[in-house]
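Q: Please design a sequence for this.
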């Protein structure tokens, strides 16, 4: 089977999944800001801690999955450094979703979608 693009339903599913991830983070930050402005400093601290822990754990899990995948075992040192920087800056989810939109083998995409 040759190189193909994802079917439109899969593309829409990926776009909606990525958008909901960003909306979740944005709404969490807005709620945290509201706690701060309202003077609820305890709830501000709890929610800020929760946001930071969830974002860091998401990047760590994404990086571990990336390193365990077969196609990344033979990656160059330069690419490994770039992907480490992307994950350190919090872009691991965007990186993983962006890989699904490139023209690639559909069997590989289905495996990637299971890992998300």
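A: Design:
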């Amino acid at each position: 089977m040759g190189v193909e693009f994802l079917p439109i339903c899969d593309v829409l599913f990926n776009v909606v999944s990525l958008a909901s991830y960003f909306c979740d983070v944005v709404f969490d930050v807005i709620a945290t800001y509201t706690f701060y402005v309202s003077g609820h400093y305890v709830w501000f601290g709890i929610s800020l801690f929760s946001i930071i822990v969830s974002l860091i754990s998401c990047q760590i899990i994404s990086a571990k999955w990336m390193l365990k995948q077969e196609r990344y075992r033979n990656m160059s040192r330069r690419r490994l450094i770039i992907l480490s920087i992307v994950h350190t800056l919090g872009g691991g989810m965007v990186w993983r979703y962006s890989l699904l939109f490139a023209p690639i083998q559909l069997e590989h995409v289905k495996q990637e979608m299971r890992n998300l």
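Q: Thanks. Anything notable?
A: The chain has a mean pLDDT of 81. The chain is about 75% helix and 0% strand.
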